[in-house]
Design brief:
four-stranded antiparallel sheet, 40% helix, globular, single chain, 4 strands
């Protein structure tokens, strides 16, 4: 079983958080529920920087009005991030 098929079984992509099945290196986190505070988003972003370095090398982030996408160079980094924050 490869990474893509494993992620399809684990997380069918929808409006929920998870991996974008068109690009398994992208993890989408929505601004809702328990994650709708500045403190939580600070924690998420600080953790990402501590684990992967500043955005632009191993990952980038792309905030929108409804969610933030974290795009990783390596699918394994995306999986680590997903397991920690989803």
């Amino acid at each position: 079983m490869n990474f893509n098929s494993m992620m399809i079984e684990m997380l069918p992509y929808s409006h929920l958080d998870g991996v974008d099945m068109t690009d398994p290196r992208t993890v989408r986190l929505h601004w809702e529920g328990d994650r709708n505070t500045d403190a939580i988003w600070n924690e998420i972003c600080i953790w990402a920087i501590e684990q992967f370095g500043l955005p632009g090398q191993k990952f980038t982030w792309h905030p929108t009005e409804d969610f933030m996408d974290f795009k990783f160079e390596d699918e394994r980094d995306a999986l680590v991030f997903l397991l920690r924050w989803s």
